[in-house]
Structure formats: structure tokens, C-alpha cells
Amino acid sequence: MTNSRTHIAFVAPAIILMLVILIFPVFVAATLSFTDYSLGNKTFNWVSWENYEALLKRSSYKKMFSASLTYVFIVVPFSVVLGLGSALLLSSLRFGSEIYKTIFFLPVMATLLAMAIAWEFTVDPIIGVANATLKSGCEVKWFYSLMTGSWRGGEPLDSWYGLGCVEGMPNWLGDRKLALGTISFIGVWQAFGFNMVLYLAGLTAVPRELYNAAQMDGADTAWKRFRLVTWPMLGPSHVFVVTITSIRSFQVFDTVEALTQGGPSKATYVMVYAMFEKGIKQNLVGIGSAITIVFLAFVLILTLTQVYFVNRRVHYS
Amino acid sequence: MASITLSGVTKVFGNSRVLNTTNLEVADGEFLTLVGPSGCGKSTTLRIIAGLENQTTVNVMIAGKKVNDLRPSRRNLAMVFQSYALYPHLTVRQNLEIPLKLRDLSFAERIPLIWSCVPGAREKVDKIGKVVNEIAATLKIEHLLDRKPGQLSGGQRQRVALGRAMVRKPAAFLMDEPLSNLDAGLRVHMRAELAGLHRSLKTTFIYVTHDQAEALTMSDRMAVMIDGDILQVGAPNDVYNDPKNIRVAEFVGSPKINILPGRTDPSGVLSCLNVNLSRRLRESVAGDVSIGLRPEHLSLQKKNAENCFLGRLTYKENLGSDVFLYVTINDEAHQVIARATPFEGHDVAIGDDVRLYLVPDKIIVFSADGNRLQLV
Q1: Model's pTM, two decimal places?
Q2: Looking at the complex, does the CB of residue B72 fall below 8 Å from at least one CB of chain A?
Q3: Are A199 and A241 in contact (CB under 8 A)?
Q4: What is the extent of the structural domain holding A254?
Q5: Could you tell me the domains of chain B?
Q6: Are A317 and B79 inside 8 Å of each other by CB?
Q7: Which of A77, A258, B9, B236 has the fewest CB atoms within 10 Å of its CB?
Q8: Is B102–A317 a contact, with Cβ atoms under 8 angstroms apart?
Q9: What is the interface pTM, i.e. ipTM, of the complex?
Q10: What's the CATH number where A212 sits?
Q11: CA gap B315, B332 in Å, rounded
Q12: How do residues B223-278 score in pLDDT, each as one tens digit?
């Protein structure tokens, strides 16, 4: 075998495909990020680190990083906790869990673009169901006092709900302060079903005998058994779920494109949307590529962290 | 230390009844084995005693106290599981500490870093450490204390599981097939060690196994369970030599007891395949019976004599110290197994016609419905 070159021929197709499909585009993007190239131009100029400097300095890109990171830091914890909670509840059900699983998994299977349109109607300030429901609550005394805090002596008009009853309910997607929160809410709604399925799979791998042993050892409350057995035994699931959710949250695009187009005043200007706007809509390939490279760096860091944890900490055998 | 009593316990899963009315008394300090084929309800019985499974009806008593509604941790029992059920993310030391920490420390005292601020916690933790060290020394696992279960061999995990059961000094040990994941050599070694442990701890042991050899070698008394019923409880010797039921006789003993069709004539005299046994039933009932013969009660015979079967040797199983001969008799209608010494076994070859002598004193007779019939 040492003298033959056949082995090279055997691995060549895989290596060539990998280079052409995966490595080469990244390399091209990295190269373009140092140019001012526009699609269709015959030539381009090297601009060195100009594109990256723009990413760090211009306020619209600062907003981009802040929007993406805020989205990730809202969606990841909420969808992970909700996913774990619903998985624990479902695994304790004796019957009916199939129905719940299907319902919670629906948002994952549905096309997010179609769902985004449904959400647009739901949160529309004038014809939306959300605000109509809130509005009708103004007439219901106990609900009003609960939401405004007047039951514990607060002034109703100091609360957002009391104000909303008088001046109209919030514009969920149109308000600069609320838009990213609304988009994140939809993101959590969409992501937690997937996390639930991952956690359910993780839970089936926890040996029943460990729970019995924990009971015998004195873990007589569900919380103690969760701390002693469930949480640590789900270690590999935690790492996988958090990584996958982070990467998917960084990749959020379709809800933004369908509902806000990055607005209002760049409040929902997330990275992938910026990539799309600069690189495709405005044909500024150079800056688009620079965003892409930064984006890839984020994803790479997440992936390497996962690999580290998988190898070091959470595998017990 | 405590006695354990089950009275009228039954267990129903859905529509199927896995445990018929079960009564069992385990004396203080006794080593009792529940033995039976898989699916006979022995593990369920153990789990009911532990409190991991709810009995469908009536009582479990530990040390004279009714524990029906008591949580497993409050019953002061310890259990060793077949898969050991060690916490894989904790070191051996932490695994051994867990039962004591959960019992003796308050919530605040179990929180990392905070515990050291709680008055009195340091003494408690030191005491737990001392107990763990003692147990580790007893089981000779001190050098493993800082490893994780994943880095241990099967035998070492077995010891850690035993240690985790021992640290709390429970009223009784429950063991659910603890040796069945070990290799053959280690299993025999651990049998002796467990029996030794029982002698030194002088605590009640309830041991579940499907391996009748474990039951025969280790226990003070054994309870044979088949299909949800405890068929016989007694010292291993009594169960082996004096089975009350044909199913018990067939389950206990390896190789299996030979069962041959027999008859009693109107005067109650027994015969088996045309061999007159010249034994008589205490209560004479004419008709068909089953005759049980242990392999060691059949022997090769050179000359023609009374009480002999003629047959052909079909297979020889050489175990070194013994040779088991598989012989078809009565025109190959029945096969019996006979034990021979290596010397005797050497003399015969497969295909030879042989003559088997049966010891009439040792025959065990069962009625057609499987119950034991006494001889005069």
C-alpha cells in the first residue's frame, strides 16, 4: 500500500467535493470581504480591513450585533427551559402525550413564512386578535385590576395596560421598543417544540433504575431526584440543545423578512437579514461577505464550545 | 436489623395478576433468597418490600411496623440493583456519600460552598467522610474513591453498589439479581463474599435471583416462586431433597430432575416403566403418577439387577469432576440424565447400551396435578 497511489483515488471524490462545496465558498467570501466588489462588475478594488472597520464603527451594524445577540439571549434560555419543562411534563403523562407532542411540534414543522403571516394578523394593532383580546379585558374588573396592579394599590394609568386601555394597545411590531421582543416571542414559540423533542429523546436514555436507586437513597421529592439524576444525566442533551438553538437563533431571518424588514429603525436588524439586505438587495457584496465571515465565526465558536463540552465534561462512560 | 413480613400481598398490573396472594416471613438477620424463573414476580415482590411498587392489597411489615404508606427512603432499607444503578456523573466517593447526605444534611447544608457557613455542618460532613472511608476499607475499594463508575470494572462497580447500600446501616438489604451481570468466575467468588458479608453484618438479606445455584449456596432459607406464587419456603437442603411440588423439583437442581411416568396398582405399589419399585404410597390411589429422580440417584450398573432401566447413551457431558450421561430408555420414548464419576463415564461411549440402577429410597413421587405424594 505504501507504494501504491490507489488510496488517493479512493478518497479524492470526497475531498474534492468537500473542498468545492464547503471550503471554497467560505474562502471566496473571506476574500471578497476585503474588496468593494459588486455583482456584475468586471473588476474590484482591495479595500483591506475597511469593511470590518465599518462593522465595528457604524451605528447600524452596532444595532445589528445588538439585535442578533439580544434575540439569541432571549430565545435560547426561554426555549430551552420551556422545552425541558414540557418534556418532563410529557414524559410523566400516562396517556395523551402523543397529542401534546404533535401540537408542540407543529410550529417546527410548519413553514415559518406562512406562520409569520398568521402572526402578523394576530399582533396587528388594529385588526389583530391579541389587541382585541386585551382591549376587551379593560371592561372586566378583576382582569383590569390584576393587569394594572391596582389590586395592590397601584395607579392604573401608571401601568402599560391601564394606559393601553385609554390610548390604545401597543403596536407590537411597529414600536421600536417592542418589535424585537415580539420577534423573539415568535422565535421561542417556534423553537421550544424542537427542544422538547430533543429532551424527550434524552429522557428515554436515563435508566429507570437510577430513579429507583435515588428513591432508596433518600431522594423522596421529585426536585431532589431531578437534581440527582435527571439534570446531570441530560448533560449531553443540554449541550446539544443549547448549541443547536443558539445557531438557529443566530440564523433567524424569515420572521424578520416577513414582519418587520429589519425595522422599525433597525430594531430587528439581525445578522442574516443584514447579510441579505447588503449582499443581495443592495448588491454590496464586500460588506455582505464581511458580515458572513463574522457570522461564521460566531457559529464556529459555538460549535467548538460544544465539541469541548461533549469531549470533556458530559460523557460519563 | 429487622424482620420483614408480607401478608396477603397481591399485585395486579392492568388486567394481569403478577402476584397472587403472597405470605412471607423473613426473620431478623436471615438470608432469604427469592428464586424463580424470569417473570415469576420475584422482583415485583422485592420492589413492593422496598416501596418502589405499590402492592394492590394488604400488608407489608418491617420490624413489626406497618409500612404500606411509607416512602422507600423512610423504610430504612437499602437495595442493590442488577445494573448497579451508580450515578455516573459522581465519583465513587460521592456515590457512597449520597445516601448519608440526603438523610443527614439539611437543604442548605447540601448546597456547594454555602454549606460550610451553616453551623454544625462541618462536623456532619466529616462524620460522613469517616463512614465512607470505613465502608471503603471494608470492601477494599479505597483506591477507587476518586474514580467515576465508568472507569471501573463490573466487579468493582458491584462493590461500590454494595458500599452505597451499606453506608446507611439499613435494617435490611434487598438485592435484585446483583451478580447476574458478572462473569462466571467472579460470580462464584462474589457468592462467597456476599455470604461472608451477611455473616459479619448480621443483617436481614432478601436476595432475588433466577439462578438456583446462588439460592442453594448462599441462603439460610429459599422461597421458590413460580407464576406469581410462592410454592415452597425452606432451607436449601429441604427444598432440594423434599420438594412439595413437581414445579419446584424441576426448577431446583442442575441438571434438571428426571421425571418419568409411573403407576400405582390397586394395592398402592409403585412401578415405573415396567420396573417394579417395591415402594408403596402412604395413601394408596391407583392410577398415573410422576416419578422424580435426581441424576445422582441413577447410576451405571454392569450386571443385570433389580430396579434397572435398559437404555442407550446418546450424549456425555464431561464437567471434569462429574460426567452426566444422557440416556434414552423405553425405546427412546424418554430421556434421563444420570451422574457418573469420571472413571465410570470413561468406560462407556456414545451409542452404547447401558443399564441404569435407580435408588428406590430416593424416588420422589408426584400426583397427576403436581403435588407431592408421600411414600411409606
Answers
A1: 0.78
A2: yes
A3: yes
A4: 50-124+175-312
A5: 4-247 (3.40.50.300), 257-373 (2.40.50.140)
A6: no
A7: A77
A8: no
A9: 0.81
A10: 1.10.3720.10
A11: 13
A12: 999 888 888 999 999 999 999 999 999 998 888 899 888 888 777 778 777 777 77
